[in-house]
Amino acid sequence: MDGVSMVLREIEYLRQKLNQIAIEKGVSNSKVIRLSKQLDEVLNEYQKMITKE
After folding, report:
1. What pLDDT is attached to residue 44?
2. Which among 48, 47, 39, 49 has a CA at the least distance from the CA of 16?
3. pLDDT by residue for the chain (53 residues), tens digit each?
4. 14 Cβ contact list (under 8 Å, min separation 6)
5. What is the number of other CB atoms lying within 10 angstroms of the CB of residue 12?
6. For residues 22 and 50, is the Cβ–Cβ distance under 8 A?
7. What is the dihedral of CA 18, 24, 28, 32, to 10 degrees?
8. What's the rounded Cα separation, in Å, for the pair 36 and 21?
9. 45 Cα distance to chain centroid
10. Segment 35-44 long-range contacts (CB within 8 Å, at least 24 positions apart)
11. Sign of CA pseudo-dihedral 20, 37, 50, 10
């Protein structure tokens, strides 16, 4: 599996986890905020990867 595919899988996993926890605990929960920041970082990484190609 190439790097882009791995990052896309991680993005999808983080999105699902973020949505699940946001529904259970609310959008202002610290876990939701932490996951949101993590997702932002991975999305930025993905953006850098695809603009290099």
Report:
1. 97
2. 39
3. 799 999 999 999 999 999 999 999 999 999 999 999 999 999 999 999 999 86
4. 35, 38, 39, 42
5. 10
6. no
7. -20
8. 11
9. 10
10. 38/14, 39/11, 39/14, 39/15, 42/7, 42/10, 42/11, 42/14, 43/11
11. negative
DSSP, res 29: S
DSSP label of 15? H
- Residue 1: its pLDDT value, please? 72
Beta carbons of 47 and 7 less than 8 angstroms apart: no
| Closest to 7 (Cα-Cα) out of 37, 35, 36, 49 | 49
Predicted local distance difference test score (pLDDT) of residue 52: 82
| 10 Cβ contact partners less than 8 Å away, ≥ 6 residues apart | 42
